[in-house]
Amino acid sequence: VGAIGERLYQSVDSNVRSIFIFTQDNIVVIGTSQRHVLKFIRSNQTILHLVHEAIYYNEPFNSQYVVDYEHESLIFAVGIELHRYAYNSCSLYDTCQSCIGSRRYDNKPCIWSNGRCSLSSNSNINDRGCPLIINEIQPMNADVNIESVTLTITGSFEGVQAHLVTILVTFPLSNQHDFVCTIEHIQNDSLTCNLIIPKQPVQGIISINIKSDRELSMGDTDIFGSVNFPEKFNIYIPKAILKPDYGPAIGGTKIQIENLDFNLYSTVKIYLDKQECQISKYDYSTNEIECINQACMNDKERLELNIQVNNHQWQLEKTYFQCRANPIIFDWYPKKSIISGGMKLIVSGQNLDVVQKPMMKFISNSSIFEFITVCEIISTSQMICLSPIIDKNLDLIPPFDIHVSFIMDNMKIIPKHDILMIVVDPIYYPFEDSIQQINSSNIVQFEGLNLAETHSI
Prior knowledge:
Elements: E1 18-24, E2 27-32, E3 36-42, E4 48-55, E5 65-68, E6 73-78, E7 81-85, H1 96-101, E8 110-113, E9 116-119, E10 130-131, E11 134-138, E12 141-143, E13 148-155, E14 165-170, E15 178-187, E16 190-196, E17 202-210, E18 223-228, E19 233-236, E20 241-243, E21 246-248, E22 254-258, E23 268-272, E24 275-276, E25 278-283, E26 288-292, E27 302-309, E28 312-313, E29 320-324, E30 328-333, E31 336-338, E32 344-350, E33 358-364, E34 370-374, E35 376-379, E36 382-386, E37 400-408, E38 411-413, E39 419-423, E40 427-428, E41 448-449, H2 451-455
């Protein structure tokens, strides 16, 4: 079905019937109960060749039609709409295959040109073969570090055999210009091919050529010809993203490396200058990789990222990790907290914001109690930590002291004043009758136990 010159029209509907039949010279038009309009070319009294099929998806049309002989058209109703069927016009054919295919049996010299079917004054021009059409090629860029890439090309490949297709990517290189993309799979609307990647950044032009393996006759619709894809194929050097791209000189920063595409299960080694950054996390499915750096020589050092994949050095845009001065703790307050914990301890210092995960550690004298809280960086000179919650089952009787230290990524700091005193929790009595009088000085009086200890904090 569809202008391929088949001699048999077959419907899947056993109840299909003719609604109308129109004939003019060797043209036969049949409307069916399936809302199809079929155009045939009659070669003799017994053979009809199907050259076009139109399908209408609205309500069924009836058997009434009007012939516009001036424009060689049938006019009929489908539901409440009028339709014109130009039975003897080249514009009837909307594909190259239907346009050129009609030449096998129809004397009308239709040709396919500039994406449409039109009448030609020269019946021997463009009367055979259909041009290659390329709609899209993906991907259109590739990392210079990968060995090869699979291109998916969508377009018109119906009836095309793989050995008749040549795909070249031409790069302006001194040692080699043309790189062949080897066909892997081909189907009617797409093909895939494998391209070996040159080892330097460059842009190339993709050309697709299809040749015919036979001499075409008039009306043959074989696809052939050449197309240069307008968009250039780009080989690029990747730019890694480091998060964070700075850290304290003492090392221990967990660095996430993003924007790189490793092959599945590649063996990867990461270096900052010549020092290896030990990989702590590598998710193959998402190419998410994380490493922990070693100590810098000094806090001014700028370390270049280097990556080895399967023992080969990768090409990367220049990417650096900046070493900074180590954090310093000056003091912290208050130095008293309650059994229930959760009190804000204000820590002052310098270079605090270079630390990824600052923590405050609390240990009792008898070492039966150990607690670590994660602190919040407020600025380069201040952070807030929460005092520990003391388990009442430990039989620690307040007041008692616990020792304090700070864990700043790869650095442990014991402050000059490292004792936190723990006192009992305050107890508040309810107001009498839930009402409390406010005196003339706007002071509200609370009553309870242990208030002096805790409110002095």
